[in-house]
UniProtKB/TrEMBL annotation:
<dbReference type="GO" id="GO:0004336">
    <property type="term" value="F:galactosylceramidase activity"/>
</dbReference>
<keyword id="KW-0732">Signal</keyword>
<keyword id="KW-0378">Hydrolase</keyword>
<dbReference type="Pfam" id="PF17189">
    <property type="entry name" value="Glyco_hydro_30C"/>
</dbReference>
<feature type="signal peptide">
    <location>
        <begin position="1"/>
        <end position="18"/>
    </location>
</feature>
<dbReference type="GO" id="GO:0006914">
    <property type="term" value="P:autophagy"/>
</dbReference>
<comment type="pathway">
    <text>Sphingolipid metabolism.</text>
</comment>
<dbReference type="GO" id="GO:0032006">
    <property type="term" value="P:regulation of TOR signaling"/>
</dbReference>
<dbReference type="Pfam" id="PF02055">
    <property type="entry name" value="Glyco_hydro_30"/>
</dbReference>
<keyword id="KW-0326">Glycosidase</keyword>
<dbReference type="InterPro" id="IPR017853">
    <property type="entry name" value="GH"/>
</dbReference>
<feature type="domain" description="Glycosyl hydrolase family 30 beta sandwich">
    <location>
        <begin position="455"/>
        <end position="517"/>
    </location>
</feature>
<comment type="pathway">
    <text>Steroid metabolism; cholesterol metabolism.</text>
</comment>
<feature type="domain" description="Glycosyl hydrolase family 30 TIM-barrel">
    <location>
        <begin position="103"/>
        <end position="452"/>
    </location>
</feature>
<keyword id="KW-0746">Sphingolipid metabolism</keyword>
<dbReference type="GO" id="GO:0005102">
    <property type="term" value="F:signaling receptor binding"/>
</dbReference>
<dbReference type="GO" id="GO:0042176">
    <property type="term" value="P:regulation of protein catabolic process"/>
</dbReference>
Amino acid sequence: MVLSSLSSVLWALVFVAAQVILSAGYNKCVARNFGHDSVVCECNSTYCDSIGPVSLPPLGQFSSYLSSIAGSRLEASQGEVRANSSGGRLRLTIVPYQKYQKIRGFGGAMTDAAAINILFLSAGAQDQLLRQYFSSEGIGYSVVRVPMASCDFSTRLYTYADTPGDYDLHNFTLAPEDINMKIPLLQRAQALSPRPLSLLASAWSAPAWLKTNGALTGKGSLKGQPGGKEHKTWAQYYVRFLEEYAKYNLTFWALTTGNEPSAGMMTNYSFQALGFTPEEQRDWVSLDLGPALHASSYPHTHVLILDDSRILLPHWAKVVLSDVHAGRYIHGVAVHWYLDSVVPPGISLGTTHDLYPEYYLFGTEACAGWNPLHKGVMLGSWDRAEQYAHDIIEDLNHYVVGWTDWNLALDPNGGPNWVKNFVDSPVIVDATRDVFYKQPSFYSMAHFSKFLWEGSQRVGVSASGETHLEFSAFIRPDGSLVLIILNRSSSDILFEVWDPAVGYIPSTAPAHSLLTLAWKRQ
């Protein structure tokens, strides 16, 4: 009994010491200001800020993690749960019996450009960068999207089967970009991750000889009709990709039916695309892709349709998922964020979920800096971090089960990109100095990916009155609760959280901040 008591005391002291180290600035952000509204955190081969593995305090206490325009970056602190309300504050009430979707995960894309930038760094800096994303001391990415062959974030145009007339894909071969860059980095990421990574494959274009326009770019779709030789070859191309990556011990959780099929229907579209109407996609899945996967060694690989902006929902889902022959091969609907401001989430995501609750919704691409009015990299932009957090919370509150960022790393110009479609990234690599910068958007992602483990289930949360706060609550597999709160206003907002299982949690969301609260409930 005495030994047990001593052991408890020692563990308590260790926990307190860890919190003191954190609050004292252990692995603190090395801030650099590039003239925007906030700062980046600079990392090199020997140092990078990190909050490390996170454990929760005992029942009756809570943990808080704050990032803000003022410069806080996952700043950790603790507080006491109170038995009584502090009164007069906005109250956020947890409603645990209201249960919604379960989380799959969060992540980013290992594009050619991302791989090039990571490999430009020294071995030590590469390891630091990968650890920041994938290790237990990092932010817990569990999803990696992998382009099948080239996209605009490549340095050249290519597919894996560029030999005209090779319908049996005898000459199918992975590219040097896969063998020398993406695959080794994915293997290293997997080795760092405490859990198996969920790999997600997306193709931008079929080989030119399979397409109506004879080119990888521009307006063009598959020749022939679903069920025909071109469509069957394109389905087998997916199977061959899975087979080749499996040789490197990389297996895919899911694949999409093709990146942004609407782009391939546009005249003079400037980079790789393959056009599909929802009717054509429905029939290709039903007659070609679904049967090909079912007959392969990968019948359990998930198939996600659309992989395009949610403005196309619910129409696209109605066309494809209402067909029983296609629907039996499909697991979910993939969405991009680019036109989210055009259509309310309830009309698109909510309606799709209500019509087809057996199919999950998954965010597969997003990036800042894509808008021509604010193009490319903005080092230190807190506004872009808020854009991320707002969209993620909005998506999560409308049944989305995960959210995938675009390039894991880009250069200071927002590339390389062969068509100069430069955008921003949560990590920007400056190879000339052998450093990388963690943008505010990196920490925006972290507030979700670090704390919302796979299997976490969204639960109800309601506000006692009108508020500028945006929020979403989840019960994790271990029974603990996570509440994520975004304050995009220019004023501090005082509030308290009422969890019937534990009591009242007093808190403040500073102006322009993102806050994650977490506590045990049993």
